[in-house]
Amino acid sequence: MRVLLTGAQGQLGQSLSRRIPQDWILLAADKIFLDIANERNVYDVISDFKPDVVINTAAFTSVDDAETNVDFSENVNNLGAKYVAQASSKYGAKLIHVSTDYVFDGNSSEPYTEKDTVKSLNVYGSTKHKGELEVLKNHAGAIIIRTSWVYSEYGKNFLKTIFNLVEKNKDIKVVYDQVGAPTYAPDIANLIIDIIKEGTLQPGLYHYSGDTVMSWYDFANKIAAAITFSQSKVEPISTAEYKAIARRPKYSVLNCDKIEKFGYKRSCFSQGFEQSVRALIDESKKL
Fold it and tell me: Pathway of this protein (predicted)?
């Protein structure tokens, strides 16, 4: 099995690189080796490597920065997804593409299904949705996995940011009125690997997220509580008070019934959270 992984330095990319079976031939491509916004680069790498499967985790994920870097976000999240889909299809590679809960506006009171209307509040979400459409248009066999609030001990993410602040005894303010389901990156990685191994999941769009719903404030409190030596205080504030550059959905919980019917269990928050916090604590002891 020959696998091309884009976005190899991101937290999901790192999670996949550490878990891909040893008997698979993996090309873990970072953005220097493979810039998915560069059409020629994409075609050259895929035609040369001849992967059986392409896993596209590459994206411009900085939600606030995307608001002031619209063209860059468009090039990576939309056109980049298009190029990867077209090249994968041309050279006969299967494609698994990763997307986001931020394609939704958050006005629902029930978990979003794959059939619900998409309406993003920000540039990041809108460009990711455009990328989804390009993937579906240009690769008949593509599988798209929307996930949410991804965290781990790798890369840059909310858990690591809060952990670092709490470890330094910093008091922090976190929004209480945005609700979602944190998803452990290694669980997404294991899901993708299982999908490739089994080869029975039908092409299309699927939701996959953690099994526990909470606010960012709740999440931060759990992180602070896990670091028993810290004296940090976590203060709840509203989205309006926080005044972020980009608007974010107040509710972006994903309904995962569709993928669960194929036997894939949701990410267990308690297990993933414990593993990632333990890894961060162990790492901090080495410093």
Answer: Carbohydrate biosynthesis; dTDP-L-rhamnose biosynthesis
